[in-house]
Amino acid sequence: MCGILGVVAQSPVNQLLYDGLQVLQHRGQDAAGIATLERNTFHLHKGNGLAHDVFRTRNMRALTGNAGIAHVRYPTAGSAIDHNEAQPFYVNSPFGVVLGHNGNLTNTAQLQKELFLEDMRHVNTNSDSEVLLNVLAHELQANATNFRLDPSIIFSAVSAVHRRCRGAYAVVAMISGYGLLAFRDTHGIRPLVVGSAKTDKGVDYLVASESVALDTLGFKFLRDIAPGEAVFIDLDGNFHSQQCAQHAELNPCIFEYVYFARPDSMIDGISVYETRLNMGEYLAEKLLREWPDHDIDVVIPIPDSSRPSALQLANHLGIPFREGFVKNRYIGRTFIMPGQAMRKKSVRQKLNAISVEFKGKNVLLVDDSIVRGTTSREIVQMARDAGARKVYFASAAPPVKFPNVYGIDMPSRKELIATGRTDEEICREISADRIIYQDLDDLKAAVQKCNPNITRFDCSCFDGEYITGDITADYLDRVEGARAGGKANKTLEDDQLELDLVMSASSM
Hints:
By secondary structure, this protein is α+β, with helices and mostly antiparallel strands.
């Protein structure tokens, strides 16, 4: 999962891009990068870490120009945290192009062979984003007339990219001497929006992963970029767009609404905050159906993304909602957690229970999802240690049983607590007295309620149905094998705690 930005403006954009990265920091904390365009020259700085650690005053001064792109990186399935894979990536042939990408290509190995054997292009890292960049660069060359580009040629190149690339990709790219290109995969799995701002000198345009970036940077939301669509904004501020795929269909990733997106964002016409309220309501209705004689005394969220769901659940049940955990906003990041003992220590350092809210009560803890279960188990124990009489656990999402191959680095199937286990077995694994999962149909209804025009979502981590239709058991085995050699000791649940802390600290 990553965050991307692209801007064409009438004034310098370095500060604008940096501020945008701060807003999208929740989408990636492992690396950050900015590339600006001044006349025909790119200025690029990137590195590992949070945006405020990567960029210093001297770096910002060097990022001159009125157009540029920016990226925050969260490693996709199987990739290690390598500083060489920080984005944006750059190629200089046949046109200077820089590119940032959110998602994951599912046919990377095939494309690497094609690039080497047929396109005569060299890929220097293991990143699928560099593969995507070289595919785009090759198609720009193949479609160009006398090494000159115009919007129609650029859109033809994007059409070729769609024909060759499989998987999820939301892309921003800057073409030297021409302008900003942004496009979205034909399934619309990853989000991408565009906005504008009127200035005394003309109109500025901004493309971003989430609408919250437009809001906070003073841009007016224009629309979501459609699946298969490309937008090109030249350096004079002229806006062009075209559908570049014959068969495009919107299938947004439902996990964006569960956890990854900020609650104040709108994605594909859907309020993220409202979906999370709906999740709490549907979860409450299920609880009342299956457990009408419950003895819950208090509902407590696990900070932060589960708060709206927990609040609505409590309201629907007519039970007090209380904040029972306090987060340490100033703890340093935990880069590697090699074992169970370190994971327990990490949770204890980052969360602390308010004993008065637990002592002698039957508490219902609400989280957005349960992935590996390590964090959930430790939090249940914290509630017991704080004096809870009984500890029940509710998940606003269904059981996570399958890997995500479209840009979220989840554990392997054997590490997912829900794979091969019943709800009762999961309950025992996390040491809770009872567990309540959201039904998948209810999760879909909670999101679709905000935009009935969307009829299908990517729910692959819940149901194992992969939208692109090219995911096999062998493919999952390869991804999990690559992951075991890379970011094997860090799970999505670890990142949830770290990213929540990032957002809390940045709001101070």
